[in-house]
Design brief:
The chain is an alpha/beta fold. The protein is built from ten helices and eleven strands. It is about 40% helix and about 15% strand.
Length: about 280
Amino acid sequence: MAEILKGAPVAAALNEKIQARVKTLEAGGVTPTLAIVRVGVEPNDISYERTAQKRCAAVGVEPRSVTLPEGCGQGRLIEILHGLNSDSSVHGVLLFRPLPEYMDDGAVRNALIPEKDVDGITDASLAGVFAGIKKGYPPCTAQACMEILDFYGIDPKGKRAVVIGRSLVVGKPVAMMLLSKHATVTLCHTRTIDMPSVCRNAEILVVSAGRPAMIGREYLSPGQTVIDVGINILDDGSLRGDVNFADAAEIAAAATPVPGGVGTVTTSVLLAHVVDAANF
């Protein structure tokens, strides 16, 4: 039976460190502040915003909501981001995406300076991840994967790692972050030939495919650590990861659950980035 790599203790450890750092900042007259920028009234965005506000309050980070009406112009949104860039009381900005279809995603997200890009969405922040330099912040979900490995004492050094998915949100950045930890990394995608055999050769398998229970026993081998990034909502409203957890629990050495795995850690990573930004 695989060890279940639960996200809750990882998040709790991160939150404890965040709270201690917040107290130090507050003693110096600084309150770490996160601006949450949302366009429109999409229910999922509103729900996540409320969750983020509660998480902020729990660790002492001040949330500041900036809501723009549906149909607002792209220029107005960019103007808001420029204002937040120059506002010294705001240390991080979370921009909800996807943006409305009539907006140019690249132009909007790159209006944010990397120093306040705490969710790793700008080209400059991603360039920092790929170059291995401190410029902006890595995408929170990708870093959450690394935080789980670190918390449970799973060192990527010298290990064969396979990442399924090549998005800029998870796949590519987590591949670079594993490489920076001296893993030997293979990046798989929809054109990969004989993906199951490639995955069976992995010692660390990170899955971000966006397809429920896609990864079954034919992709798995004994001794693996499986990090499931997928969050898929089924017709009955339940959540399912990209990995068949029953197969992973039977075959692998360790695996993250869904729910209760990577997603549990992501918001704590975001808040850690805000506190980091407040130190500058």
